[in-house]
Amino acid sequence: MMSAVSGLQGEVPGFGTTAVVVVSIIILVVLFNIQRFGTGKVGVMFSPILALWFFSLGSIGIYNLVKYDITVLKAFNPAYIYFFFKKNDKEAWLALGGCVLCITGAEAMFADLGHFSVRSIQIAFSFVVFPCLLLAYLGQAAYLMKYPDSASRIFYNSVPGILFWPVFVVATLAAMIASQAMISATFSCVKQSMALGCFPRLKIVHTSRRRMGQIYIPVINWFLMVMCIVVVSIFQSTTEIANAYGIAEVGVMMVSTTLVTLVMLLIWQTNLFLALCFPLVFGSVEFIYLCAVLSKIFEGGWLPLVFACCFLCVMYTWNYGSVLKYRSEVREKISMDFMTDLGSTLGTVRVPGIGLLYSELVQGIPSIFVQFLLSLPAIHSTIVFVCIKYVPVPVVPQEERFLFRRVCPKDYHMFRCIARYGYKDIRKEDQYAFEQLLVESLEKFLRREAQDLALESNLNDSDVDDVSPRSWDSGVPGGEEIEELKIPLMHNGRLQDVGTSTSEETTAGTALPSSVMPSDEDPSLEYELSALREAIDSGFTYLLAHGDVRAKKNSFFLKKLVINYFYAFLRRNCRAGAANMSVPHMNIIQVGMTYMV
């Protein structure tokens, strides 16, 4: 932004550094305030301007090439790289770090894959962005051949005088668009980090009905605005900001190359030799640039490193605390012997209705369920333990959204439901659509279960293993306590489940829910469905557990500091579970519980 506004310094008398900073801050405030309208609306408004910007770059580049020195096209000869380093030695190495700035920003569009289609980005880069940038830099090189003293203000000096103001306006708007691309990419990265359990829960606003990846995160938006204003106010120089951007850019390239190599080896299963050639070729070039830009650390390059460390601490603290909380829930889950002793009434009164108890466990009964039994005078006739999991696939089809299995014998009328969402899925359905889809999936489960039981009529009096066992990866490290968990497989682009049989959750007994008929009568599918419809008519209640985590008294000081203060601070200030799950506030019952880790 400052680079575009700084063009006024040589054109408007008295327009100094302070004026550049003030104008840049005003533009930044406007830019961040329009983010709430969404990438689609902002993109439609800016796309003609961006097209005009690249057309201007290419046209001015061709003009300078023809007018000043077309022989700069000899620079395509790679031999000049050798001659350049041989002649300038150390200065050439330092200049190499500055060359990185020629490509920074152009690749930001690839971070917006959630906001635009792959094909549109490929076409835009190959046929518009890259050719126009190449012509622009060739034109500036031709201008410098005749006016070598114009290096500090080369872009605006190379623009024909009559076109200065139109180009300045378009350049400023283009700078806003470039900033827009980085902001959108930040939203996407934070959203995916949240889905993987590596970032505190924040409010996400989906701004498009057609593009799933177009999102807006208010907290991140205002945080970026404040940080940008602080950086511009402190540095007041495009040179130091450019150095910071260069180090961040090369760092992203190195990380991307490393991750792509892992994908080639583990996902694509590419030949080992070909997979290693990729980092050797591209990684070597990027490493050379990285070594060159590291010399700029004390000239503004420290900024992205500081931000990276801060975000790494936040992400590590959140993940570490979440893992300890999950392990505590697994360790303290309720045994089936205890549930058997309670009986089908669960030691209380069963009233018509469906209770949706949210938990992170995919196996077993969470310990918080006992707190509900102790706190409530009655419990619902149908209990569904809902576990929401974000899985490593882009989109989960609606028909594969819910996985059900029965918990305890039939007369308990308790089920487990795993709701699966891909990292590009939008939880945009309201509570009524969610409830309707859940009930439809539960009815399908009951019908399928009855069909399978009919085929296994020879097992009349014995316990029948769950005919539709469902399990899911916890999504977080430390799930080794649950040996029966299996990882879902992908086949032809669809999710496949590896079933398991456990002694905890079985389809045992031949009884109906206690609210419908005595447990000694032979139930049928119609009775179970009628019981379910009776519960549906009575409504849904969302049972939420507010689990707190505290370090034990004999824990190390560092662990107490991280868990009791840093992680607790993040939990208090992140988005609440009820809001994050999009459940109605009028139908919530919440119980708190503290886990000592």
UniProtKB/TrEMBL annotation:
Residues 499-511 have a biased composition (Low complexity). The keyword Transmembrane applies. Residues 352-595 form the K+ potassium transporter C-terminal domain. It is found in: Cell membrane; Membrane. Keywords: Ion transport, Membrane, Potassium, Potassium transport, Transmembrane, Transmembrane helix, Transport. The keyword Ubl conjugation does not apply. The chain crosses the membrane at residues 12-32, 44-66, 92-111, 123-143, 163-187, 215-235, 241-265, 272-295, 301-321. It comes from the Eukaryota. Potassium transporter. This is Potassium transporter. The lineage of its organism: Eukaryota, Viridiplantae, Streptophyta, Embryophyta, Tracheophyta. The gene is LOC110753215.
